[in-house]
Amino acid sequence: MDVIVSSDNRLIKRINKLKQKKYREQYGEFFVEGFANVADTAEASPDSVRVIVLSESAYKQYGGHFSEFDVSVVSDGLFCKIAETGSPCGVLSVNAMPKPVFPEGRACILLDRVRDPGNVGTILRTACAAGYDVVLNNCADVFSPKVTRSAMSAVLKCRMVFDIPPCELVSRGYELVVADMTGENVFDASKPTGKFCVVIGNEADGVCDEIMGVASRILKIPQKNIESLNASVAAGIMMYALMY
What angle do CA 232, 207, 140 make, to 5 degrees? Predict the structure, then answer.
């Protein structure tokens, strides 16, 4: 077994470049870190896996889990240098980015300038679980390491598209339902009967005027003793309240 020990290795250089958005876009690749995340992603989309990278220690423990893939082994010290997490477990995969796909299902969620990577990743994961397609308009980069850690395999399981004018969703038959504290209680509101799109706005500024202008309904989550909910928490409540 050959072990990569040099930071000048071509694969190591490529992984380090993938930490930057411009190189992710240039190569059409991103990386996922952590055993559970890599295993889940590989199972969800095996054809997207370009290479599995394991530290020497991780290879002894996890090598058998990835026998069907191209595996490269690096020294423990070198893995710590390329990892994004503080205490890496020694498992990483480089994956091809999926192609954007316009929403096709009954329900989707539109994220309007949601900038926190943790929020974006968590919403993706919840949308995947709840059966929603995803539209991301000017949001945190969905293929950044921070987002993929929160999203797990949802970045490959979800049908996603980027920077779509809200009027196009309306023209495709989606009722836009905005989450905002000026609206009707979501738990008292009637559930949509046709195609609908939940809209979650920017953490500080809410939903933009363009979307508010074409929205069919505004719904709120009732709250006591607190000014607002985290965007990902609000998104999860809205998605489940309107779908189930």
Answer: 50
Tokens of 74: 């690096």
pLDDT digits (tens, 9 = 90+) for 175-221: 999 999 999 999 999 999 999 999 999 999 999 999 999 999 999 99
Among the listed residues 117, 231, 98, the one whose alpha carbon sits nearest the alpha carbon of residue 157: 98
Structure tokens at 107: 């329900």
CA dihedral over 180, 182, 187, 193, signed as positive or negative: negative
Q: What is the DSSP letter of 18?
A: T
A 10 A CB-CB count for 89 gives 20
| Strand-by-strand arrangement of the 133-137 sheet | 160-162, 133-137, 107-112, 196-200, 175-185, 217-220
Q: What tens digit of pLDDT does each residue of 5-60 get?
A: 999 999 999 999 999 999 999 999 999 999 999 999 999 999 999 999 999 999 99
Q: What is the pTM of this model?
A: 0.93
At 19, give phi and psi (nearest 5°).
-75, -15
Q: Give the Å distances, CA to CA, from 70 to 39, 191, 219, 235, 242.
A: 14, 47, 48, 37, 43
And the tokens for 177? 């339902």
User: Judging by DSSP bridges, how do beta strands 91-96 and 29-33 pair with one another?
Assistant: antiparallel
β-pair type (133-137, 107-112): parallel
E-strand spans in the chain? 3-4, 29-33, 49-55, 71-74, 91-96, 107-112, 133-137, 160-162, 175-185, 196-200, 217-220
